[in-house]
Structures are given as structure tokens and as C-alpha cells.
């Protein structure tokens, strides 16, 4: 056992060193996005800080971690420095696709995630439904696209949702740092913008998947069809389809009429798809429509019988099976894992910036840090052996079940293991002094404002 642990440890250190190399490659490719070298070097520091084990990752904590004396350089990187964050997002996307693009099934998974914020002084912040809170709350929502394969996945596109009321008020628009040319876009339109960028740089996968927000967006579906891209989009039970018989029916009514009862049992097929926690089995069926390129895919939970509906489009000339559509539908879930990793391990929702450009830049650099670890995990996965799983419910556990493949979180820990360096004691003492002085100054101005309010001064 000791020998096996030693061999596994040696192999793990190799992956940590590979992570360092991948970070160097991606950071080097970002050079063309920056007008000056110093902001480019600061971006590399910022990415390293995002890959740290600090519990909170913002301008102050990252600056202290990377050895800066104040947060000025970090704040300048996000707010004033001249660099093209949209171009940088394209560099990150091409880096991911270069590593994952040889997989047999590639899916662009659309979804949104949010960051709770206080007040209304942050670009995009308003009271709206926040998936991270599970309710209506004050915060910023961002639309993302994940490049998902069976071998690995990473977030490759992001657009911040900016409410219309922040765009129509020119004074507020300027205060939030929103460019004068930015127009209001719905979430489905933001998704279309991300996909248009992927088409332009030839990184678009053959399939797109999304939940009901995107499935019910007819213009988004039309955009994909016009560009020859297949999709499997989640839709509601009230979604209407036209059957080959000419009947127009709601999705739930079509299932009741044509798939319910014992006589239709054979039309359901139990399919098992590998997820992050092992195999997941559901019953699946599909219904044809009047269009030979469109169908309705239905998923049924084996225990509860709960149904989920997906509207599908297969481009002309592309053969497809039920199992292909099932796998596409199931590759929508890795985007949720991308949010989990991004927030828990890379500070995706830790930014304390308020301006629109700064918020986008933090997101882009977070996507870059996440991409480095996701790509390294995918590379390591090709060499990993599958752990032993039980064949029957009565199987006894083996003495050695093996090892799962290295996860993104473990890759980040290995990166820290091979790069960890301790800052001098005086550096941290300086930061303790700096924070106390900054907070004292902030307290002074806050107290003066309160005194002026009490005396009626403006």
C-alpha cells in the first residue's frame, strides 16, 4: 500500500507541474490582449491569486497574496488598464477547445448564475430571481456557456445581464461605467451573442443544450437552425408541437395521448449516462413532429415518474440516435458544476467591484484560472483507470476500490503544492497596518457625512 501511495503521489506531482505549464501557456497567449506589459504581468498575478486557497478572493486579498504592497495595481488592472477583455475571453475559449475539441460528443451548455450584491451601485444589480439564492434577491446575473464533453468541461463564455433601467438613465449609466454603445439584451439574446462569437472564431460545438429560459426563445432556436447547429433544449409542459398527424398538442398532452399506458411501454427506453456521482438511469422516449428535423425528447424518472421535456433539432445530413440526444441533454448539467467550482475554488462570485468593465474583467480572468485546472484535469483523466463499482446490490466492498480521476479541485491543490511560497513576515504586518489605516480613513469620512446630515449640510 505504501508503494502504491508513493506512486500515486509522484504521478500527482506531475499533474501539478503540468498545471503550472498550462497556466504559463494560457497567460502567454493573453499578451496580445494588453497594450502594456505591466497590466499583462498583473493579470498573471491575478490568475495565480484566483487559484490560491484563500477563502475570499478580491482586490485586497489577491494583492497581499501575490506580494504587492497595496491593491492599487490590482484595482487598476480591473478598472483603468487598457486591455481587451472580450478578446481575452476568446483566447480562453480557444485554449479550452484546443484541448477538448477531439472528444466525440461536444456540447455548448447555456445557463445563468448570479452574485448577490447590496444596494444599487453595481452594474447589473437589481432585485431579480437569483439561482444562487433560490429566490428573488438583489444581485447581478450573468449568462454563461460551458464547453462540455464526456472527458471534461469548462466555462468559455460570459455576458453580464444589465437591466434596462440602468441603460436609459445616462447619468446612472456613466456612474456604473457602462459603455455608451451597450444596448439592452435579454438573457436569451446574451446567449445568442456568446454563440455568435463562438461561430466567428470557429469554436462552436455541434450541439447546444439549455434550460427553459433558452428553450422557449424562438429566435435563439432559429439562430441555431440557420447556422446548422443542433440543439436539445428543455421546454415546459405547455410547449406546443405539431405531430405528423397534423394535431397541435401541448407536450404533456402528447405524452398522455401517445406514450402513456401499458401499450406504449416499449416506446420507453431506459438509458444510463455517467455523471459526476456515477451512473444515472432514466426512461426516455421521443416523439416525431411534422418537421423531419425536429422532435420532442421526454425523460421520465424511474421512481417518481416525473417528466421533463426537451425540444430537439438535428441539422440536415446529420444521423442521430435516441442515445445521442440523451447524451446531449445530460451534458447540460456540467455547466452547474462549472459554477460550483468557479465560486467555491476560484472566486467567481467574490469580486467587490462595481463598474461594468471591472466586473467583466474579473469574470474573464476567473474563467481563465478555471480553464487551466479544467484542461489539466481532462488531460489527467485520459490516463486514469476507472475505479471498481458494484455489479449487484449485495456486493461486498473491495479492499481497494481504486481511485477516481483527479478533479478540478484536486488539480488546484496540486498547483498550490508545487508553487506555494510564503511571503515575508514584514509583508503581512505591512498589510495589517494598511488595512487598519484604510478602515480608519473610511470611518472618518463616514462620520463626517453623518454629522453633516444631522446638521442639515449637504
Summarize the structure.
The protein contains 16 helices and twelve strands. 46% of the residues lie in helices and 19% in strands. By secondary structure, it is an alpha+beta fold.
N/C terminus separation: 73 Å
Shape: globular
Secondary structure: helix percent:
40-55%
Please summarize the sheet with the most strands: 10 strands, mixed
The H-and-E topology, N to C, reads as HHHHHEEEEHHHEHHEEEHEEEEHHHHH
Beta strand %: 15-25%
Arithmetic mean of pLDDT: 90
Uncertain spans: none
**Structure annotation, total helices:** 16
Rg computed from alpha carbons, rounded to a whole number of angstroms: 25 Å
SSE inventory with pairings:
Layout: H1 2-29, H2 37-50, H3 59-66, H4 72-79, H5 85-100, E1 106-116, E2 126-130, E3 135-149, E4 152-160, H6 164-168, H7 170-175, H8 187-200, E5 207-210, H9 212-215, H10 218-226, E6 230-235, E7 240-242, E8 248-250, H11 251-258, E9 269-275, E10 278-288, E11 294-300, E12 307-313, H12 322-330, H13 334-346, H14 356-381, H15 408-419, H16 425-454
Parallel strand pairs: 1-5, 5-6
Antiparallel strand pairs: 1-3, 2-3, 3-4, 6-12, 7-8, 9-10, 10-11, 11-12
Helix pairs in contact: 1-14, 1-15, 2-3, 2-4, 2-14, 3-4, 4-14, 5-14, 13-14, 14-15
